[in-house]
Amino acid sequence: MVTNVFQSWSCSRFLLLCAALAAPAAAQPAPEALDVLPVQGNVYMIAGAGGNIAVQIGESGVLVVDTGLAGRSDAVIAAIRKLSNKPLQYIVNTHFHPDHTGGNAAIRQAGTTITGANVTGNLTDAHDGAAILAHENVLNRMSAPTGKVSPTPPEAWPTDTYVSGEKEVFFNEEPVQIIYQKAAHTDGDSIVFFRHSDVIATGDIFVTTSFPFIDVDHGGSIQGELDALNHLLDMAIPKHEEEGGTYLIPGHGRICDEADLLEYRDMVTIVRDRVQDAIKRGLTLDQVKEAGLTKDYDARYDTKTGIGSASTFLEGVYKSLSKKK
After folding, report:
1. Contact of 205 with 227, CB cutoff 8 Å
2. What residues in the chain have per-residue pLDDT under 70?
3. Domain contains 154
4. Which domain holds residue 103?
5. 211: CB partners within 8 A, 6+ apart
6. Dihedral angle at the C-alpha atoms of 253, 266, 258, 207, nearest 10 degrees?
7. pLDDT at 148
8. Which end of the chain is more exposed for a tag (fewer CB within 10 A), N or C?
């Protein structure tokens, strides 16, 4: 009796195993489609490739701000080509993080330099592909000192950098300002202002999907973050009833206007002041994290884990303020 039951069970299991082996392998889920949204004027936003990508199009060609993750480059190029078949001439990087620069090499190779913007002397192939513009510290972070291995390949590095202030490009009959924000999210942040379209690409200085990431290890600071947010507020001009007017493309999240930016700036200021008070009272970092200093904002901004979490934000603010002190 026991033997018959065992034989029956073994036979059934064998048949199930054979059926499983004969079945086709489960299909891998397709990557999420990219969202391509008109913003204003000549500017569009591509979302879903990592960090948001701004695309300016016109008769002269295509300019993009940031390039997303490396693995989404083909999809990004296809999305750009649906917007314009003109030459892709400029890439601007708002900072060095790979969710904004990972596609540099592939997207640069898909472009071409007609205007002679590539002037960096140490890249032998600088005349090939689109020009990559960024603050000098982005190049420093993506490259490496002589004799060291760089974290990114040379073809992904910026080909034209600036040191302070701003860099200006006149493209598609529009002034484009690339403006340095000192020691904000990182030490190499730029915001990109399309003056005729009245659109600003903010990079990760401003996001709508999480708390800010103050990358203290790479030159970021809470005061620089607030200075940059206040600079953006000075630049953004709302239309009537405080709606519309200047539109902002955040590093992650939805298209915004000045009212959204103002709310975010106020949140960052309030949390900064709370942490500053906690430091004056002698609280440790662990005590600050346990004190609920972001509780009234957690439902909206806390990602629970990772760089957008309340814990990481508080740690960045605490370290930044302690370092300054």
Report:
1. no
2. 1-31, 114-127, 324-325
3. yes
4. 35-204
5. 294, 297, 301, 302, 303, 308, 309, 310, 312, 313
6. -20
7. 84
8. N
